[in-house]
Amino acid sequence: MAQRGTTRNGEADKIPASDLPQPVKIQRVRYTKIFINNEWHTSVSGRTFPTLNPATGDTICELQEADKEDVDKAVAAAKAAMQLDSAWRKMEPSRRGRLLHKLADLVERDQKLLATLESLDTGKPFLQAFFTDLEGSIKTLHYYGGWADKIHGKSVPVDETFVCLTRHEPIGICGAIIPWNFPLLMLMWKLAPALSCGNTVVIKPAEQTPLTALHIGSLIKEAGFPAGVVNIVPGFGSTAGAAIASHEGIDKVAFTGSTEVGQLIKEAAAKSNLKRVTLELGGKNPCIVFADCDLQLAVEEIQKGAFYNQGQCCTAASRVFVQDRIYEEFVRRSIENAKKIVIGDPLDPQTTHGPQIDQQQFGKIIELIESGKKEGAKLEYGGGAVGENSLFIQPTIFSDVKDSMRIAKEEIFGPVLCIFSFKSKQEVIERANNSQYGLVSAVFTTNMDRALSVSGALETGTVWINCYNAMHVQTPFGGYKMSGNGRELGEYALAEYSEVKTVTFKMNDSM
Ligand code: NAI
Ligand code: MG
Question: Domain 19-281+486-499 - what CATH class?
Answer without folding.
Answer: alpha beta
